[in-house]
Amino acid sequence: MRQLTNYINGQRIAPQSGAYLDNVNPATGDVFAQVPDSGAADIESAVTAAAQAFPDWSKTPAHERSRIMLRMADILESRLDEFARAETDDNGKPLSLARTVDIPRAVKNLRFFATAILHTQSESHVTDGQALNYTLRSPRGICGLISPWNLPLYLFTWKIAPAIATGNVAVAKPSEVTPVTADMLADVAIEAGLPPGVLNIVHGLGAKAGAAIVSHPKITTISFTGGTVTGRAIAAVAAPMFKKLSLELGGKNPTIVFADADMKNALPMSVRAAFANQGQICLCGSRLFVERTICEQFTKDFVDTTKQLRVGDPLNESSNMGALVSKPQFEKVAQYVELAKEEGGQILCGGSPPAQLNDRCKNGYFFQPTVIAGLNHTCRVNQEEIFGPVVSIIPFDDENHAVEMANATPYGLSASIWTESLHRAHRVADAVQCGTIWINTWLLRDLRVPFGGMKQSGVGREGGDEAIRFFTEPKNVCVATGNN
Ligand code: NAD
Predict the structure, then answer these.
(1) Which residues have any ligand 1 atom within 6 Å of their CB?
(2) pTM, full prediction
(3) Which of 127, 318, 429, 459 would bridge 131 by S-S if both were Cys, CB 3.0 to 4.6 A apart?
(4) Which CATH number does 253-439 carry?
């Protein structure tokens, strides 16, 4: 069995307590790795190593930091198949998805920020012939980076890359549910020659290792991606300590389909938006608003297309959907389907685990893609984040009605709008309260754009310049150039 280690000061080391947690392959239900159950003492060691590394790393020229990170990207890319397989065993997602999306995106994250730091502009402002202001940006020091289980290496590197590219040092904790590819990243860092202490990876539970990162007085910057409830708990600790905080949280994203939409794309893409990665992407469209005049036909077509999705062994190339990430997640999804029935919803397809699975997967946590109709947009199923393969179809009368219902949740992460009307597309994009709006597409990402949520979907933005700003401290220098 695989035994994972922490990666502190350039070394692979065991947790100080000697305790480990079981890591389960969700497609089989078998324990396949042991994860360090780290605590405050391990975080302390990581902080000490990071503090020692900071003076040199922060002064290392950008082109040298870039060179090492590009080397990490190359090594990771050369091991793509190995990483993709590990991600699938750890997370339950189809191997094809890990191979084409998760791991390539982790490579891109490293390359993007490794090269971005070679091209960033500095700001200056001339004050009416009196002064020249320029802004110095310095790395902030030790950054605490905490990531979730749904896109394990993709989101872990999305934080690590901008943090270390800008000259910071990091204490990073992956989700205890999917720690394997983060563990493998330690080898990549060692082989690429990343100096000891620049990146420290500490495994363990959120309430223990994660909480120790958030409350550590020397970690002044926290970047967190995960659930809204956890984000609130982290903010309660970090805010009084005046830490710089980025929170990327949950979503309950609307897909809005107008009668004039191009159905060739709107239909398959809204199915994909609902069920990709078993519905476990923060950006999945779980509330499907359809204009009433086409709702009956669209619902029929949506259900027919959904029924064609194959749920099965994630190692099988023909599987469109694999296993949910864990038993608790499986139980949560099943409970929400029961709640939907209690709230008066009709289950149009799915609603239970698949009838047949191969022998290897007979104890795995699989759930069929589930389509529900007949629920009011204010009921719990349409308000709370399920984070699974469950979508609810709700008809709307006109544009205002669609916008009103789309905005009627505490979340505001993303939305996709399907219409051929240019004017309406822009109007609705402006009116919907979400950090990302897709028009006639879904999940198309340019790493330069600001990424994050409104309302309870988060605080702050990641991506491109936003991330570089987040991980650096601006200092204004005002030089008198004339008489004051
Ligand atoms: P989670 O909040 O349970 O855990 C996320 C991470 O936080 C894990 O590493 C966990 O160990 C750690 N953690 C838990 N409690 C902690 C605490 N008190 N202090 C410090 N760290 C703690 O989330 P999850 O179940 O792993 O992930 C699913 C959630 O993540 C969903 O809500 C999803 O929408 C959200 N998500 C958001 C985005 C985004 O970009 N907005 C992206 C992916 C996932």
Answers:
(1) 146-150, 155, 173, 175-176, 205-207, 210-211, 214, 225-227, 230, 233-234, 248-251, 282, 385, 387, 413, 453, 458
(2) 0.98
(3) 127
(4) 3.40.309.10
